[in-house]
Amino acid sequence: MQQGGLRNDYCGLYCGPVIRLVLFDIDGTLIRTGGAGREAFAQVAATQFQVPDGVANLEFAGRTDRAIVREFFLRHQIEPSPANFQRFFDAYVFWLDYLLARRPGGVLPGVRESIDALQRLAHHPIVGLLTGNIRLGAEIKLRHFGLWDYFTVGGFGDDHEDRGEIARLVQQRGSQQAGRRLRGDEILVVGDTPLDIACARVIHAKSLAVATGTFSLQELQQSNPTWAVENLAAVDLAALCV
Q1: Sign of the alpha-carbon dihedral angle for 193, 128, 125, 122
Q2: Which stretches of 28-150 are assigned E, i.e. beta strand?
């Protein structure tokens, strides 16, 4: 197995600890929403906080929803109070649900096939989420594309603003589901940004970077993931887990 890439023979399949927990990012990894999430943020900024173009120059890729909203508040001299966060997200999930049906989007290549292959393994890993989306936002997106029921554990953007802390939390939740503490090398994080690779490193997990978001394969490889591929159709994910 080559660092940052995959050979066709998978080095006689993957030689290492069996993967017991596979954690997926959502946007750019599992699905594209046609910009529905960003537009939902923009609509809330305009309608609830009277800030037109409120998402201009905000970076979304790989960040938590709460961190993005906090930056928006601070840029526009809005108090980042619990009440304002609640107000923002109450409106956001309404707009997200509305816009998903009105934007082009879809499930990314190889996603369903990869998860189905994981579940067919005799001793299949727990399949979960590690995402910056708030939990309800994640559910709205994944239910829209028929993916939500695949996942039995998760760490979300309303758990913590820092992706590394979310990784630690979902490691604990996965361990509870597994009935024992899962080591980092028994966990695989699948994501499309350098921040996904970085949060995998926090818990000493393996990382599989997919170039289906805003970062190219070459850009992702610069962050030294365990493996990097163009998309999930280009890798036998189940073979990496046994």
Answers
A1: negative
A2: 31-32, 106-107, 126-130
Kindly report the CA angle at 57 between 56 and 59, in degrees rounded to 5?
Answer: 115
Q: Report the C-alpha gap between 99 and 35 in whole angstroms.
A: 9
Write down the mean pLDDT value for the chain: 92
Distance CA 42, CA 54 (A): 6
Give yes or no for residue 209 having a pLDDT over 50.
yes
Amino acid at 141: K
CA dihedral 84, 88, 89, 92 (to 10 degrees): 180
Q: Strand, coil or helix: what is 229?
A: strand
d(CA 140, CA 132): 14
Q: What sign does the dihedral 173-129-75-98 (CA atoms) show?
A: negative
In Å, what is the CA distance from 165 to each residue of 28, 75, 159, 186, 202?
21, 24, 8, 18, 8
Question: What are the pLDDT digits (tens) for 112-168?
Answer: 999 999 999 999 999 999 999 999 999 999 999 999 999 999 999 999 999 999 999
Residue 161 burial class via C-beta count within 10 angstroms: exposed 0-12, middle 13-18, buried 19 and up: middle
- State phi, psi for 191 to the nearest 5 degrees: -160, 175
